[in-house]
Amino acid sequence: MLLPGDGIGQEIVIEARLVLEHVAKLFGHVFAFPDGLIGGCAIDATGSALPEDTLKACLDSDAVLLGAVGGPKWSDPKAPVRPEQGLLALRKAMGVYANLRPVSVCSALIDASPLRPDRVRDVDIMIVRELTGGLYFGQPQGQETIDGGRAAVDTMRYKESEIRRVLHLAFELAEGRRKKVTSVDKANVLASSRLWREIAVEVAAEFPTVSCEHILVDACAMYLIQRPADFDVIVTENMFGDILSDEASMISGSLGMLPSASLGNPGQPGLYEPIHGSAPDIAGKGIANPLATILSAAMLLRLRLGLVAEATCIESAVERVLAEGARTADIARPGELAISTADMGKRVREALEASYPGRPTAQQ
Ligand code: IPM
Ligand code: MG
Prior knowledge:
This protein is of the alpha/beta class. The chain has twelve helices and eleven strands. Strands 1-2-11-10-3-4-9-7-8 form a nine-stranded mixed sheet, sandwiched between helices.
């Protein structure tokens, strides 16, 4: 199910689709790509940020590939309905409680990072962000009047079960990686964080081969810049994960490079989306970087459809075009020629041919 959404969403999802179609042709698959409205364009067309038919089609699909939602047209704080509500409702309805945001730096882009090359070279982090709880969903939420003045409330509430399942998934991922989990909280101030840490200690005990450290979110923000290569799996609650993952994207050079996969219970369709937003400032100009969405499509193939060779083929193609010097504006250095969204997509499709490992035989 394709949900391009708003702003650059339209431009980047089409490139991911073309890449998926090319992969399908190479490997002999057939993919169907129904699409639907979400976010601001859905509000304009139906009054709702997540129309019922979109939600139903998503729940009936094998996987959802989303672009981005939001834009100035719908961002009036007094607006009764906002595009972001559609995305949050979709995440909640799909039950995708764990958002995986891998952060690494492609060797060709080491100079694109604002951090020194020696700091970013060996970075390989998996941020696991809790996605369906915490401040994003806690009630009460809203404006009220206190002592005759305006006030507003948000609620940070976590149930034990919500914390435990995402920690479990993080430890399982770490088992297949460098066996290190960093659990991030604000246990010195927040009750929800103290519960988080208690449960993290319990879950860690179930994974004796994985080491676990607990750090405060403010310190984590600092260490991500100071020594990013030390991290393996970082697991944290929804809002902390939102903030830390944007920060971490600078390690890879650009927000336009980072894909994500949001997973729920096994067998459920996952939600795959770039971590960046709808970038209204550059929407419609054809200059957005489609690689985060293309790499999200690769995660979809690997994690949801079990198409590992196909996913690797896409990732190798992306690496190849970057090594050849293809750059959209966000990753081009001063003086470097920036190519368009469509040209970047085309370069990746051409590189797929070169990365294609050969059609597997029927027995495989
Ligand atoms: C993200 C985005 C969203 C979020 C917005 C668009 C609601 O920032 O996916 O990181 O905060 O989750
Ligand atoms: Mg964000």
